[in-house]
Give the backbone structure.
Amino acid sequence: MNEIELLKELIEAKRIAHDLQLRIEIWTNDAERIRFAQELENTSVQIEDLETQIVEIEDKRYSREAKASMIEQLERYITEINKANPHLNLSRNQGLIIDNELFSGIVRDINYLVTDRVFGIHIPAYLQYTTNPDDSVSIPELTDFLRNEINILRGIDSPNYLILWQYKDQLIDRIRAQFIE
């Protein structure tokens, strides 16, 4: 198996584990709950095995490609957000009723790059800007943040998909800490 095949199997196994965990929590029939718990245990062993294989596989070209694409994706955001007048701010909700859609979009774009083989990146064109202080984020602040994220990614010497997933989860935490909470 190659890295992408292992990744797809791991994602499916994690989805199954999540479903089983939900079933265990809501099921009332004890016999079924016991069966689901056993299935969850077996799936957890499978997940550990797949994670080990992803770490130990020799050909990591797909995760190296994903890392490079993640850097390129963040660079595209920097390019696009800096096309506006620097005295404007970026809209957090991007014209939608969803709070912080701007950050959701960044995370979605990065998540896409770590869940399958990379076939391209998203160009975040048509970003909306605002003068409303309640719906805004500073362009220089977000630019500095994204540049720092690029440096963090560049610091990952031997990427694999587990490390890239960990990076994505930490990115979410850093976005929350700096821009949302």
Notes: The chain has a mean pLDDT of 92. The chain has six helices and three strands. Residues 61-180 form one domain. Residues 99 and 112 are 21 Å apart (CA to CA).
